[in-house]
Structures are given as structure tokens and as C-alpha cells.
Amino acid sequence: MSIIREVKEESRREMLKRISAHSHIRGLGLDEKGEPLPVADGLVGQIEARRAAGIVVRMIKEGRLAGRGILFVGPPGSGKTALAIAIARELGEDTPFVMINGAELYSAEVKKTEILMRAVRRAIGVRFKEIRRVYEGVVKDIKFALTSHPFNPYVKVPRAARITLATKDEEKTLEVDESIAMQLAQHGIRRGDMISIDADTGEVFKLGRVKGIEKAKYFDVESTRVFEEMPKGKIFKEKEIIRTVTLHDLDEAYAAQRRAVFSIIGGLLEEREIDPEIRKNVDELVRKHLSEGKVTLVPGVLFIDDVHMLDIESFSFLSRVLESEFSPIVIMATNRGMTKIRGTDIESPHGIPLDLLDRLLIIPVRPYTPDEMREIIMIRSDEEDVKLSKDAIEALVKIASERSLRYAVQLMHPAKIIADRKGRDEVRAEDVEEAAKLFMDVSLSIEFAKKWESKFLK
Ligand SMILES: Nc1ncnc2c1ncn2[C@@H]1O[C@H](COP(=O)(O)OP(=O)(O)OP(=O)(O)O)[C@@H](O)[C@H]1O
Ligand SMILES: [Mg+2]
């Protein structure tokens, strides 16, 4: 089970791409007792919803929520997505967090239930201990042997490296091959870094910086952990590592193994979906290790934004997931009131079937007051590096109240460009108004489309 890792990282990276509008959010902003501070961690107001979200985080951490669902309900721009992301930030690296949007299910190539299934399995972690053989120590010296890049002779890439590692008790010089040298270069390993190299896979991990190494340069602020003292012990050693992989990682590893076998015997396997048989095998394996106490299950979080986009088939799939043995915590968000469940003529609250709704804890998210909107706009302008004059802030607050907060937030950057063209680095109300004329929000665009309906392509 140790050959595969880090697919979780991919999901985090994917998530990060999507949350740039929420980059100012660093957590739920709660005090030690779980009480929301008025403005903290980039979050403003929304006190009750944040208190509820804090309780959710605690239940997730205590493992009390698996197989249950949470639903954020509120008008557009009220902070539902922001709150879900704040929950993710509170959870820590080891709890899988997967984010999908209801609209993503409709792909031409992969079945909806397969996309959901994948997301579900990526949201369930399996944690286990592993004994690895590693070289670990502080970098005292590092030298690369360079060669020309195969496609671009002007670029030099490392072909090998010679690296001296040290602890309090020992010093060792290693010659490493290209793949390790590349990793050393990519991680930007320099003198004073504490690193660990897996002796079998060659994987390089940067563990932090150690103070006081000769010829090493130190900055006031280091981006990694700083150790005051040299580590003790041997450089080459066995080390217990705790790892979390997801069920999806295991599915993929199994599938890859099988593909390898098939390609040896000449079979051609074009796979877009993972065979249910593979998942069954993985589940069995995990169950076996669970009962032997070799692994623990880490139910993570599957966040489905705009959940009203799901159709009846997907909803019934979700209900089944919530009941199954390995199930993540499902958090959903919607801005719909009474509406038809997709794929049916049945009206239901939030477009969600009643039997599923019945199992959810629902957290209401209320619209913001103008004061809260002002605060959020100011935080965002700081984050986006947009300087707003007083009257520009008020213009944006007005737009946020009349249209939506999201629209107001989105206008900020165009307004900055307009101001910039006029040779100012401060955005004024007139720039905001001009931006609002150039870019419309949804309700205006519908009016516009209606007015010119006959001229649009059909
Ligand atoms: N309480 C808050 N504190 C700070 N920023 C917030 C807060 N609520 C929302 N925001 C920011 O305001 C913008 C709009 O919020 P968000 O996208 O979360 O709304 P939503 O409820 O998910 O809307 P929709 O229903 O349209 O999806 C985002 O940039 C978000 O980060
Ligand atoms: Mg949203």
C-alpha cells in the first residue's frame, strides 16, 4: 500500500485554483471557546452561521459526523462558499477536503455517478504507519553537476548532485542521481535545510531549516519550520512515518497495476471509469486492515457547491453514499428556494428530494448588512491590492446592496484598471460607476438579452 501517494495534493491544488475569490479567508475566526470574533481570519459578521460551522468542524475532528450532511442555505453572495472554504482551512492538512460544483457533473465523457463516486472516494482517507529507510540530516554542502537541457541547450539542468548531510553525531556525503538532484533543485534545497531522502523511492522531503550552519544564509522570515538545534542520531535510519492516502488513490493504484498486467499480455484497456470490481477489492483490503488495526479511517469532507444542479439520479446516489460503510461528511450549499428537482417535475425545498433533506443539518446564511458589506469590500480591496477612495467604497457598498456582493467584488479590478488609465492609483467612485456601466450583473444582462432577443442567435 505504500507505492502511491499525494493524489490528495492534486485535489487541494485544484481547489486552490477555484478559490481565488476567497483567498482572504484563513479560517472561521473563532476564539478558544468557539465563539466567532466579529472580524477575524478574513471573515466578517455572519456570527450564527460561523458558530454553527465551528461546531461542524469540531464534530468532523471528533469523527462524529461521518455519514451525515450539512447544507448551507442563503441568498447569492451571502458567503456560503466562503464558509465552506473556511471549514476546509480549519481542518488541517491530513483531513481530505474535496470540492466540486454541481455543474461539473455534466461531462460528455464520464457518467455523473462516476464523477460523484470519485469525489466521494477522494474524500475518505486511510491513515497508516509505515517504516521507511531514510537519509536524514542538515545540508552542510550541496553541489550540482549540470548538463544542457535535452530540448533547450541554453538551459542547464542538474544531472547529479553531491550532498553532505550532518547531524550532531555524524556526517555523510551522498552522490545522488538525476531524479533526486532534480527534486533537490525543485525544492530549492540549500545549506542549512533539514531534509529527508527516502532510500527506496528517492523521494525528497524538506523538513525545515536548522540555525547555525556555516556559510548558510538565513532570512528574518523563513517559510518553513526553523529548528534551533542540530538533530541527533544517525543519518541513515529507519523512521516511522504516518501517511494518509485516499480511497481514490488506492483505486487508482489498483487500476494501474491491472493496466500494467493487461499491457504485458497485449490487452488494450481504454479506461475512463474505474471498474466497480476494483473498488470492491480496495474496500475489502481496507476493511481487513481496519479490523487488524493496521490502518485508521479518516472521513474527510466532500463539499458540493450549487447542489441544486444535481439531478434526481445523483441525489439518490448521494443518499446511498451517506448510508454506506465508507462515507465522507457531505457539505452542500445552495441559493435556491422552492424549485424543481432536476430531472423531475417535483418541486422541493432547494431542489433537493425530501428524504435527503431529512438527513441534513441545515445552516441558514443571512444576507449582509451594508456595514458588513463595507467591511468585506475593504478586506477584498486589501487582498487584491486595490486602493479605494472613501466615495469609491460607498459606491461599491451601494452596488453590493442593490445588486450583489459578488458583483461588487468583481467590479473592483476593472475599476482599478480604469483609474490606472487615468493616471491615478486610487480608485474613485466615478471609476466604479464606469466599470458598472461596462460590466453588467445577471439581472441586467437578462433584461438586455430580452430587449434584443430577436437579434440573438438561436
Ligand atoms: N463573511 C464574510 N467575510 C468575508 N468575506 C466574505 C464573507 N462572505 C462572503 N465573502 C466574500 O464575498 C464574496 C461572495 O461570497 P460567496 O461566493 O461565498 O457567496 P455565496 O453565498 O457562495 O454566493 P452564491 O449563492 O452566489 O454561490 C466572496 O468573495 C467571498 O469570499
Ligand atoms: Mg457560492
UniProtKB/TrEMBL annotation:
Molecular function (GO) terms listed? ATP binding; DNA helicase activity; hydrolase activity
Keywords, ordered alphabetically: ATP-binding, Helicase, Hydrolase, Nucleotide-binding
Q: Which domain of life is it from?
A: Archaea
Domain AAA+ ATPase intervals: 66-369
InterPro entries under this entry? Answer: AAA+_ATPase, P-loop_NTPase, RuvB-like, RuvB-like_C, RuvBL1/2_DNA/RNA_bd_dom, TIP49_P-loop
The catalytic activity of this protein is classed by the Enzyme Commission as 3.6.4.12
Protein family (similarity comment): Belongs to the RuvB family.
User: What name appears for this protein in its UniProt entry?
Assistant: DNA helicase
